[in-house]
Amino acid sequence: MSEILKVFTGADVHDGYRLHKGAVLALLRGGSRQVLSLQEMPEGCEKVALSGGVVTPGFVDLQVNGGGGMMFNEAPDVATLRRMSEAHRATGVAGFLPTLITDTPECTAAAVEAVVHARAENVPGILGIHLEGPHLSVARKGAHDAALIRPMDDADLALILGAARQLPNVMVTVAPETVSCAQISAMAEAGVIVSLGHSDADYESCIAAFDAGARCVTHLFNAMSQMGNRAPGLVGAALARADMHAGLIADGIHVHPASMGNALAAKGAGVFLVSDAMATAGSEIESFALNGRTVFRAEGRLTLSDGTLAGADLEMGRAVQVLMQSVGVPLERALAMATSGPVAVLRKAEGLGKIETSDMLLHCDPESGAVQVLS
Which residues form the signal peptide (predicted)? Predict the structure, then answer.
């Protein structure tokens, strides 16, 4: 065993997959880490005593629209990405996908370029990009601007394929109504993570899209065709396919706890947490702009003037707390949904999601949702 430099004691350890009760986390020379039992803890090394809770790798969030008072859509540049990175890393997010909500082709191209430059400048935590639209269904637009929603054309596809050549992870949310199975296959073959969302498609169309290469569903239950007795819709298709992943906004507002519980019972390990965070994350602002409209913050909700939900006022630690307290999810599974769960969707995880290699360690209090960044 390599020389142990420091040991965290007094807290359980979650390695990204499993919870180790009564364990300690050892930091070894060279930067590696190891979960040890109390009996294996050596004498003579530095000991950091924690008061309960759990040590876990940093969270991974695949749907981050803004933070620090800024929206990626409103200023798709490196400065905004730095602000978002600072805001979310302070809440325990080690890696994230900056997410562009439906916008113009020019804004989309600028967003891709900004992420490429941000990674070249080593802005912490940026794993690629998530393009949520504009190839969605107007019928299930949610807070997306209907005037900007449109079918995918050859230029759109070329931009996405070009982004996949430059970035380790490119995720796109599309609706089967506005993209073809051939386009989905072309993206999937190029390594793009194709996710279905903001769609009113029927079950059969969704299954065809999965067969063509889509392998994820964006914010399960929200902005999609629901599961009925004779029309299973996108929700039913997602739950029927064990090979599909699904993001979940666990704020207790977007999805009823009973629905979350049913999805988790149906899908096993395939459901992961997302924040769907907006400009409010890491800030005290009470409103912000999105595509020329105002989004208001009040009582844990973000809404347009007509009451439409517009993203979430949510941090990942709070989502873990909601899963445990409102849904009854065990701590082991709830933390996996914020760490190794989203990493399983990525093309390149860059060491995140597991405690041995994550560049961030957290001390979490699952009862309160509070998170402290240890390193």
Answer: none
